[in-house]
Amino acid sequence: MSCIEEKFAQLRATYPKELNSSLVMPFLRIMLDEKKSLGESDAVFIANYLGLPAMQVKEALTWYTMFYRHPVGTHVIKVCRNIACSLMGAERIIDHLSQKLGIKPGETTADGRFTLLLVECLASCGTAPVMQIDDTYHEQLTEAKIDQILKGLS
Amino acid sequence: MTSERIFFNFPVTADSHTLKAYQGRGGYQALENALKTLQPIDVEKEVMASGLRGRGGAGFPTGSKWSFVNKKAPVVYLCCNADEGEPGTFKDRWIFEHNSHQLIEGMILAAYALNVRNAFIYIRGEFDLSFRRLMDAMSEAYKAGYLGENILGSSFSCDIRVMQGGGAYVCGEESSLYTSIEGFKGYPRNKPPFPAVQGLYKAPTVVNNVETLANVPWIMTNGAKAFSAMGTEKHPGTKIFGVSGHVKKPGLYELPLGYPLKKLIFEECGGILNGKELKAVIPGGSSTPILLPQDVETANLDAECLSTYRTMLGSGGVIVIAEGVCMVRLLHTLSRFYAHESCGQCTPCREGSAWMNDIISRIVAGKGVKGDLESLERITKGIMGNTVCALGDAASMPVINFITKFRAEFDYYIEHGRSMNDGRLEI
């Protein structure tokens, strides 16, 4: 926990007291980056640290989709399935990834390397179809391009 | 910075996003000039006179929005809405990746006009390069004395804090956005009170889109007159249009407002993919009503003209759909999205968007029944106007529109249990 607390303290020092509650989102993000998925105790920890009601942080944790509450794989693959990507072959891309990884969307491979998620618009419609692996965007996808990208991942 | 473009007026290179490059293009001179020679009210007046309207979707006059704020209030907040989430919209990313400083300078000018000490940029949690480029630009701006205490030796101080979202579409709604900044789940709030009176932490608050704020340095440099000389009389300036879907050259195009939609699709974007015919166009992000080919012949891209076609300019996210696409399955991608993104606060939207998606899912699965379309219409009536924010309306409008404009396709799908276009989305 100490590394997280260090980061918390660093950020908190740059926020005036009246904006204390605005640290909830950034803290959840810092915690997520460290732990990959979050639970109730994490929300309580943040609430206690900031002196806020535990329920407020718990609600935030469970309401935002990016704060995973289940363990995810080493790499999280998010494929856009919204309108622009659909028009450019998102279904084909999703099927290919599913087949290649041997899992359905929402699942994690048995070796824990990959989690496949379907997400809504990633704001990259001009270069559809699009997926995001961990933080990085991969645009104008084709089946061959996906194979290459997956091969290049450790 | 005197070209007829406000954004795409420099060649993008490996370091064109840096402070040095921005300064080389005349960047931060508007800020220096304002702090030395102008009163805050002068900045507001110039923006008011330019006729700048919000670029995020609603198109509200920016100067008016600023004028509603009591600048003598003990605290005033400015929030930049960078939660770019409306399907079809990808313009703000370009600003972050290639010219974050233009936004930062615009925000400092806005903060000066509004007497803001603490400002926020609420950026989509998924953004990666955009976020990194923004953070780099922020530290450059702090180091150069454009942000922080006593900016450029003046008595004006301002801090900008960047907050990453959590993946909620609704947080692009202004009250949801500042509720999220306050560290809560992003439930939108009832209006009134409007944010200009009571917003973030109950203080007067202005929420402006990225592109809106990034226009401000250009306006202060070149003057309101030069700005209002571009575009149309009622909707001046340029706009970054993001074209996606079935065109040969999708991407971003900065054009004067009022630009003909047909020219954008068939000249700028090279026409329809694979030489197909045009079937429909969504002009301003997924929740704006859809246009048919005959509308595209004559429609211009500005708020007034598009309102005569009963649609909206929205965020400028133009989605082009070619002949052969199954509109039933296409609507399903949208109904699924809105059902997923409904925040859960208002019953009509929470339940209604899910019901609509259930019905459309059933039709797509070949199990539609007679009366489904009437049920959908009835549900939209129950949602629209009965919710705190506009997400319910946004979820309803595509449903009504698709059903009305492509009725035969829906009837066929329900009657035969299959698509008359083989269920194709890709062409």
From TrEMBL, chain A:
What EC number(s) does its UniProt record assign?
1.6.5.3
InterPro entries assigned: NuoE-like, NuoE_dom, NuoE_N, Thioredoxin-like_sf
Q: Which UniProt keywords apply?
A: 2Fe-2S, Iron, Iron-sulfur, Metal-binding, Oxidoreductase
Name the enzyme group at the top EC level.
oxidoreductase
Q: Where are the transmembrane segments?
A: none
Recorded hits in Gene3D superfamilies, A to Z, give: Glutaredoxin (3.40.30.10), NADH-quinone oxidoreductase subunit E (1.10.10.1590)
Question: Which GO MF term does the entry hold, naming one?
Answer: 2 iron, 2 sulfur cluster binding
What is the free-text note on the cofactor?
Binds 1 [2Fe-2S] cluster.
Domain of life according to the entry:
Bacteria
Q: Which cofactor does it need?
A: [2Fe-2S] cluster
One Pfam match, given by its short name, reads 2Fe-2S_thioredx
The record's SUPFAM superfamilies line, in alphabetical order, gives: Thioredoxin-like
Any idea which positions bind [2Fe-2S] cluster? 80, 85, 121, 125
The Swiss-Prot or TrEMBL record describes its family as follows:
Belongs to the complex I 24 kDa subunit family.
Q: NCBIfam families of this UniProt entry?
A: nuoE_fam
Protein's UniProt name: NADH dehydrogenase subunit E
Source organism: Pelobacter propionicus (strain DSM 2379 / NBRC 103807 / OttBd1)
TrEMBL record, chain B:
Is the Nucleus keyword given for this protein? no
Q: Which family does it belong to?
A: Belongs to the complex I 51 kDa subunit family.
Domain called NADH-ubiquinone oxidoreductase 51kDa subunit iron-sulphur binding: residue spans: 328-373
- InterPro entries, alphabetized: NADH-UbQ_OxRdtase_51kDa_CS, Nuo51_FMN-bd, Nuo51_FMN-bd_sf, Nuop51_4Fe4S-bd, Nuop51_4Fe4S-bd_sf, Soluble_ligand-bd
State if Flavoprotein is listed as a keyword.
no
Q: What Pfam families would the database entry show?
A: Complex1_51K, NADH_4Fe-4S, SLBB
- From the Swiss-Prot or TrEMBL record, give the protein name: NADH dehydrogenase subunit F
Q: Name one GO molecular function term.
A: oxidoreductase activity
The EC number(s) attached to this protein equal 1.6.5.3
- Could you tell me the keywords of this UniProt record? 4Fe-4S, Iron, Iron-sulfur, Metal-binding, Oxidoreductase
